[in-house]
Amino acid sequence: MSRIGKKPIEIPKGVKIELQGQCVKIQGPLGQLQLDCHPRIKVRIDEATGNVIVENERPQDRQNRQLHGTMRALIANMVAGVSKGFERKLEIYGTGYSVNEQAGKLLLQVGYANTVERVIPEGVKVTIEAATTRGNDTPARFTLSSTDKRLLGQFAAEVRKSRPPEPYKGKGIRYADEQVRRKVGKAFASGSA
Predict the structure, then answer these.
(1) Which of left, alpha, beta for 85 (phi over 0: left; psi -120 to 50: alpha)?
(2) What distance in Å separates the CA atoms of residue 76 and residue 125, rounded to the nearest whole number?
(3) Which of 2, 31, 176, 180 would be a feasible disulfide site paired with 68, CB 3.0-4.6 Å?
(4) In the chain, what are the domain boundaries?
(5) Superfamily of domain 3-83
(6) What are phi and psi of 94, to 5 degrees?
């Protein structure tokens, strides 16, 4: 039995959950999401406690145990997304690097000859706090926010992959809470040979 799968999902105020067969539709103040559950897993709403319960009818089956926890986590993320939302903060380090939003695209100047363009997916909002870097100490900062945690994480990873942080000077795109392991560069011996 999955420990995560057994936990009931509390439904916050203002969130409506509708079950249509294996399809779970969740509507809240920030938007609407839906998920087609796996046929091996059953989802029901407990009216007495106001919780969503994810049930596994065959806990001895390994795939059922895996799906049990996964489906519960996906539904819990959807409930949190439509009620509170998710956000991911990113920073760009490097002299002359910048970020800009234009016509549904994220434009990144990160040391290449051409500007890197990333199409912003529907449902993801970009907020730019600082558009350009100031030296190597003050980064350009922007925040991605969405109700869909999977979509947000995927887009943030694609943006970071445009120029991952390098280990010598730390230049590149990184998550705000990410620690970059730094390497010591080459040490040149002083004096003549």
Answers:
(1) left
(2) 21
(3) 2
(4) 3-83, 86-175
(5) Ribosomal protein L6 (3.90.930.12)
(6) 140, 135
Which strands sit side by side in the sheet containing 86-93, from one edge to the other?
Answer: 124-130, 140-146, 86-93, 172-175
Look up residue 178 and give its DSSP letter.
Answer: P
Alpha carbons within 13 A on the beta-carbon side of 119: 2
Assessment of whether the complete model's pTM goes beyond 0.70: yes
Fold match between domain 3-83 and domain 86-175: yes
Give per-residue pLDDT as tens, 57-98. Answer: 888 888 888 899 999 999 999 999 999 999 999 999 999 899
Angle at 17 between CA 48 and CA 44, to 5 degrees: 55
| End-to-end Cα, the chain, rounded Å | 69
Question: What distance in Å separates the CA atoms of residue 160 and residue 131, rounded to the nearest whole number?
Answer: 16
Q: Can you give the pLDDT at residue 124?
A: 95
DSSP annotation of 54: E
DSSP summary character for residue 163: S
Task: List Cβ neighbours of 185 (8 Å cut-off, separation of 6 or more).
Answer: 168
The answer to whether the CB of 118 falls within 8 A of the CB of 124 is no
**Per-residue pLDDT reduced to its tens digit, 25-60:** 999 999 999 999 998 889 988 888 888 889 888 888
CB atoms within 10 A of CB 59: 14
> Is the CATH number of domain 86-175 3.90.930.12?
yes
